[in-house]
Design a protein that fits this description.
Length: about 180
């Protein structure tokens, strides 16, 4: 009986220790240590002749809202694997104040190991839901990124227009003087 119980406990511990397989879906984890989208680079000097790409790059690196969206997406990706994993097993231990007499003899303490197993397909569905949430966060991040690029480009073109308008006005004033 003890050998069978030991084997059951060992089997339960092995099953409980199994983690979800690595994600091989359309959203794979990035290698965060090697890729940093927000790495610091030289900022364009407003007085120099910076081109549009310099300003767009600066905005992408230094916008806190964009970084927050990126971190939300990264956090959503980190929640996919735990959603597909089994719940943590519970180990219980009890010690009796007085010996309890059972048919197999007196009992002084009790140990237990419990693992909850969901119905077939539930873990896969939870993983798909978490994956869809990660995809949603990614789409929000991309939308925020594109909106930021649009705002920077619009401001840049407006600045170019105003600089040209000022130059034309100054030229007209010089000709009329």
């Amino acid at each position: 009986m003890i050998k069978l119980t030991g084997k059951i406990v060992l089997l339960a511990a092995l099953v409980a220790g199994c983690a979800a397989a690595p994600e091989r879906e359309r959203l794979q984890r990035w290698e965060w240590d090697r890729v940093d989208l927000f790495a610091e680079e030289a900022d364009p000097d407003p007085g120099s002749e910076a081109i549009l790409d310099d300003y767009v790059g600066y905005a992408l690196r230094n916008n806190p809202g964009l970084r927050a969206g990126f971190e939300r997406w990264k956090g959503a990706l980190e929640r996919v694997a735990p959603a597909r994993a089994l719940a943590d097993p519970r180990f219980t231990h009890g010690q009796f104040l007085r010996e309890v007499e059972t048919r197999v003899g007196p009992q002084e303490m009790r140990f237990g190991l419990a693992q909850i197993f969901p119905w077939k397909g539930k873990l896969g569905l939870k993983g798909k839901i978490a994956l869809q949430a990660a995809e949603e966060e990614y789409q929000r991040y991309v939308a925020a990124r594109e909106a930021l690029i649009y705002r920077v480009r619009t401001a840049y073109y407006e600045l170019q227009y105003l600089e040209r308008a000022v130059a034309v006005t100054e030229e007209n004033a010089r000709l009329l003087a």
